[in-house]
C-alpha cells in the first residue's frame, strides 16, 4: 500500500508542477494525464496496489513528457511573439513620427488646402492617445508580458493606419535592417 500511495503522491506532485503551463499550452495532453492519474487513484481505492505500481512508471513518464511538451510550446509561442513584437517595434515609432510630421505640416497656414476637411485637433488627440497606448505596449513588453504587448501594439498599428488615412498619407514600414 505504501509504495503505491507514494507513487501516486509523486505523480501528483510532478503534475502540480507542470499543470499551470500545461493547461495553457497543451490542455488536451493535460486532460489525458489527469484521466490516467484518476485511473491509478481508482485502482488504489479498489486496493489494487499491483495495478498502481505497474501503471505508475508510465504515468510519471507521461507527466514528464507533458511538462516538456508544455515548455516546448511555450518557447515556440514566446519566440513567435518576440518576432512579431520586433516588427511592431520597428514600425510603430516611425508611424507615430510620420503622423506627427503630417499634423505639423497640415497645421501650417501654407497647407490650408491640404488640410481642408481634416479635424487637426481630433488628429492631435488621437496621436496623443496613440503615444500613450504605445507606452503601455512597451511597458507590457518590458514586464515580460509579450502577449499583451503584441495585442496592444497590433491594435495601435490598426488605429494609426486609420488616422493616417484621415490625414491622407500612407504609412510605410521602415526598410529591413
Describe what this molecule looks like in 3D:
The chain starts with a helix and ends in an 11-residue tail after the last helix. It is an all-alpha fold and 177 residues long. It has five helices and no strands. It has helices spanning 2-25, 27-45, 49-107, 120-142, 146-166.
Gap between N and C termini: 65 Å
Low-pLDDT stretches = none
Strand proportion, as a percent range, falls in under 5%
Number of strands: 0
Let me know the average pLDDT.
93
The H-and-E topology, N to C, reads as: HHHHH
Helix content: over 70%
Instruction: Give the overall silhouette.
Output: rod-shaped
Number of helices: 5
Radius of gyration: 27 Å
Please identify the structural class as seen in this structure.
mainly alpha
The main pleated sheet reads as: none
Quick structural overview:
With 177 residues, the protein is an all-alpha fold. The protein contains five helices and no strands.
List keywords for this structure.
177 residues, mainly alpha
Element layout with pairings:
Layout: H1 2-25, H2 27-45, H3 49-107, H4 120-142, H5 146-166
Helix pairs in contact: 1-2, 1-3, 2-3, 3-4, 3-5, 4-5
Amino acid at each position: 500500500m505504501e509504495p503505491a500511495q507514494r507513487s501516486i503522491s509523486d505523480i501528483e506532485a510532478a503534475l502540480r508542477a507542470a499543470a499551470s503551463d500545461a493547461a495553457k499550452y497543451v490542455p488536451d495532453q493535460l486532460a489525458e494525464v489527469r484521466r490516467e492519474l484518476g485511473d491509478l487513484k481508482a485502482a488504489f481505492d479498489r486496493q489494487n496496489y499491483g495495478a498502481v505500481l505497474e501503471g505508475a512508471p508510465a504515468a510519471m513518464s507521461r507527466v514528464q513528457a507533458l511538462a516538456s511538451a508544455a515548455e516546448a510550446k511555450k518557447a515556440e509561442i514566446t519566440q513567435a511573439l518576440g518576432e512579431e513584437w520586433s516588427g511592431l517595434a520597428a514600425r510603430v515609432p516611425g508611424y507615430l513620427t510620420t503622423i506627427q510630421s503630417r499634423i505639423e505640416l497640415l497645421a501650417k497656414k501654407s497647407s490650408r488646402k491640404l488640410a481642408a476637411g481634416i479635424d487637426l485637433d481630433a488628429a492631435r488627440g488621437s496621436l496623443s492617445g496613440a503615444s500613450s497606448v504605445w507606452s503601455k505596449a512597451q511597458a507590457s513588453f518590458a514586464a515580460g508580458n509579450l502577449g499583451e504587448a503584441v495585442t496592444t501594439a497590433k491594435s495601435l498599428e490598426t488605429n494609426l493606419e486609420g488616422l493616417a488615412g484621415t490625414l491622407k498619407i500612407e504609412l510605410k514600414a521602415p526598410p529591413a535592417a
